[in-house]
């Protein structure tokens, strides 16, 4: 399988692989757009991690919008209410851009992501688990960056 | 008989293996659950424990009695995603994972149709994209048939049926031959979305002028110039306001008049020089040329 290593910038940065995109549907994808989408998507994991660890929904604002933001913000609220914190540390991403809408207003990607998840209840670490999951994300352009509008794990096939 | 017994045995083994994927020794949980459905998790042992259900989309915590079944009511886990189940006991912790899938029945469509206004007869000029959601606004990832229909203007409508991939279905369609508002409908099951597409005439296709002497000899002889109705290549009248340029060449000089189309026709007056050549154009279309009188 032809995979391209994109970046392993530092030891605490996730390894990122991007599958070559031959076709993403009705609209050709410029390299610059692809790079921006991937950069912003990866940053969204960082925001997600910080928001769910610190239980601060405002940290989602920079990278999430719409349904994704509402659902993640609701999780932050639930965690706050229960005294729970969760730490998501993404260690690798295998990304594939699969759809770019004809009017250029949305891009869908698939991500096979590996992450470590820690669950803390009232600051007490309950478990640390390594998880591999496949996510579907839809990003839409905003004034200055792409933001994640839909973010949902896809069951293993 | 032996074959039937073997098949049964293989089936049992497979079922056990499948369940084992989603459980540890102390937790029995389903592998996948439809969003919003009721479900249960069985624990083993005795005493008390805390059960956590954790995912980016939702977090739950239950104090449970080990060895009993913990029931989750419909609507407790509406958000599709990958979840970790953590059972914390006095001296140990057990974990398992499961997936919440979107309900298979679509409940809403997010339908993006572009553009809202375009010329007639444009190949692949209209695009439609549909995102399919269930009741809980989860993307329905199972392949789903979506029909796109463009209708409402004279002539047979266009219908295309597309199978969605990862919650998205899209199509491109040609605009119709006749101007007017068309309905663009996306439908799956009982759910549909409608957008109006305004189809306007295209560019003028041909141009023809006629000339006659003006009946008002107020300031010398003048020619009354008038086009035939200006239409696009499908026979639709071009919109009023479309500019038509009349050019008169005479004796090495040239004068032009830009006239907007009114009620489908462009009219103007120009001096009636003997031997003048008068031509007409609009956009990229040249019309006929008239030579007035004799040189």
Give the class of chain B from helix and strand content and strand pairing. mainly beta
Task: Quickly count the domains of chain A.
Answer: 1
Oligomer: heterodimer
Strand content of chain A: 35-45%
The helix/strand series of chain B, from N terminus to C terminus, equals HEEEEEEEEEEEEEEEEEEEEEEEEE
- Taking all Cα atoms into account, the compactness measure Rg of chain B is 36 Å
Number of helices of chain B: 1
Number of helices of chain A: 2
The counted number of beta strands of chain A is 6
Corresponding CATH architecture of the largest domain in chain B: Sandwich
Largest interface: A-B, 41 and 39 residues
Strand content of chain B: over 45%
CATH class annotation of the largest domain in chain B: Mainly Beta
Taking pLDDT < 50 over at least 5 consecutive residues as the criterion, the unreliable ranges of chain A are 1-10
Distance between the termini of chain B: 110 Å
As for the CATH topology of chain A, it is Nuclear Transport Factor 2, Chain: A
Main sheet properties of chain A:
6 strands, mixed
By CATH, the topology of the largest domain in chain B is Immunoglobulin-like
Major sheet summary line of chain B? 5 strands, mixed
Mean pLDDT across all amino acids of chain B = 88
């Amino acid at each position: 399988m032809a995979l391209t290593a994109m970046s392993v910038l530092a030891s605490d940065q996730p390894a990122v692989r991007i599958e070559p995109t031959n076709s993403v549907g009705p609209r050709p994808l410029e390299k610059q757009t692809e790079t921006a989408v991937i950069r912003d998507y990866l940053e969204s994991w960082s925001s997600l991690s910080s928001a769910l660890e610190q239980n601060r929904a405002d940290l989602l604002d920079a990278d999430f919008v719409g349904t994704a933001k509402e659902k993640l913000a609701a999780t932050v609220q639930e965690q706050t209410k229960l005294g729970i914190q969760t730490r998501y540390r993404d260690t690798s991403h295998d990304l594939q851009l699969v759809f770019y809408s004809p009017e250029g207003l949305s891009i869908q990607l698939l991500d096979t992501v590996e992450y470590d998840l820690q669950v803390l209840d009232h600051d007490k670490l309950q478990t640390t688990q390594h998880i591999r999951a496949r996510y579907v994300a839809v990003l839409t352009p905003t004034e200055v960056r792409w933001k994640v509008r839909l973010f949902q794990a896809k069951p293993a096939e | 008989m032996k074959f039937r017994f073997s098949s049964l045995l293989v089936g049992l083994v497979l079922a056990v293996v499948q369940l084992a994927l989603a459980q540890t020794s102390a937790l029995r949980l389903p592998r996948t659950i439809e969003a919003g459905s009721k479900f249960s998790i069985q624990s083993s042992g005795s005493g008390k424990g805390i059960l956590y259900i954790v995912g980016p989309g939702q977090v739950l915590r239950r104090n449970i009695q080990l060895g009993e079944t913990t029931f989750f009511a419909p609507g407790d886990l509406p958000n599709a995603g990958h979840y970790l189940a953590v059972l914390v006991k006095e001296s140990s912790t057990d974990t398992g994972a499961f997936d919440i899938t979107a309900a298979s029945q679509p409940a809403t469509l997010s339908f993006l149709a572009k553009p809202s206004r375009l010329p007639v007869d444009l190949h692949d000029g209209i695009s439609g994209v549909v995102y399919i959601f269930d009741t809980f606004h989860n993307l329905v990832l199972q392949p789903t048939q979506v029909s796109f229909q463009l209708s409402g203007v004279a002539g047979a409508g266009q219908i295309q049926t597309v199978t969605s991939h990862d919650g998205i279905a899209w199509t491109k369609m040609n605009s119709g031959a006749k101007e007017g508002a068309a309905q663009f409908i996306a439908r799956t099951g009982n759910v549909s979305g409608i957008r109006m597409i305004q189809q306007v005439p295209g560019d003028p296709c041909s141009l023809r002028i006629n000339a006659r002497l003006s009946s008002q000899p107020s300031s010398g002889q003048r020619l009354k110039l008038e086009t035939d109705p200006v239409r696009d290549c499908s026979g639709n009248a071009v919109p009023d306001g479309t500019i038509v340029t009349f050019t008169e060449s005479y004796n090495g000089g040239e004068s032009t008049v830009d006239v907007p189309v009114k009620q489908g026709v462009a009219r103007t007056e120009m001096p009636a020089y003997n031997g003048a050549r008068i031509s007409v154009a609009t956009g990229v279309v040249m019309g006929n040329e008239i030579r007035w009188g004799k040189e």
